[in-house]
Amino acid sequence: GGSGSLDQLPSGYQQMATGPYNALFVLDGGALRYVSNNNVLNTWRTAYGSTGPVGSGYAQVALNATTAAGVKTDGTLWQWKGDEQPASLGAGYGQVAKGTSHTVALKTDGSVWVWGSNANGQLGVDSPADVDSPQLVGNGYTAIAAASQHTLALKSDGTLVAWGSNSAGQLGSGLAGTLSQKPAPVVFDASYSPQPGTVTASGPTTRLTLTAKVQIASDHLANGVKGNAFVVAITASGAIYAYNGSTFVAANALSIPAAWTSSLQNTTTALATDQDLTALAGSAFFVGYGLGVTPSEALGEMLTSKRYQLGYVIP
Questions:
Q1: Is the pTM value of this prediction over 0.70?
Q2: What's the pLDDT tens digit per position in 117-157?
Q3: What is the span of the domain harbouring residue 286?
Q4: Which residue among 133, 149, 162, 222 has its CA within the 20 to 30 Å range from the CA of 244?
């Protein structure tokens, strides 16, 4: 094919990074080759800039639309933009990754460092401010990755954490739409309790006493995930009622009841003691919990994620 076509990709390369319209290759021996799309044709360059090489001895590189960074075999980290010459950012690095406008780097001692835009919390430094030089996120990490507006990192104990934009649930926290400005564990389905709670009953329907127990997954308890526990009654017609601390009230878009508990915790509570629940005859009672900042968010998340357990059906 013509200049820059796919059949001209360099041979003998050990790693590559891609941006939206460009790619950077680390060749065997540590030299770099760069290709970009200038809207006319793809052109090869000796490096990211067009004025000359950026050195050799690279082991791994990262790239976005405007900047590139590379870790050399001696552990030094370098960053450059366009035709500028690379600037050293220090030694002791093992990996670098780039998002659209932020950079994350992993040192061989397990520490993670970040800089760049923090408009969506993608730096993980618990502050909305941008950072123009490497800032420490934390220690004990073994791998990193960066996407457009969020970051992921793997800890030495096997925990996967993420931070930044969560507009489409990309952080895996169960809180789609809520960004995180600091590392938060990715919540896998396997961490959810398969039986999040039980509801037992005693007495006649006219003087029914319900006792509920909720079991929160250990990951959610240990990591301070915000949410609420609920006991809900679903009628034969599909109407949903939730216990608000004293009785069951309709749970709809206009009136979300108070949470059964104000924070996630394992607890056993007596509900609706000696109350006449004839109006809810035929209803199924469920106990469970949802993740969310407000009771409304948590109840909705519990229902959509089906993190609840059938406990009792009023005859």
A1: no
A2: 999 999 998 778 999 999 999 999 999 999 999 999 998 87
A3: 197-313
A4: 222
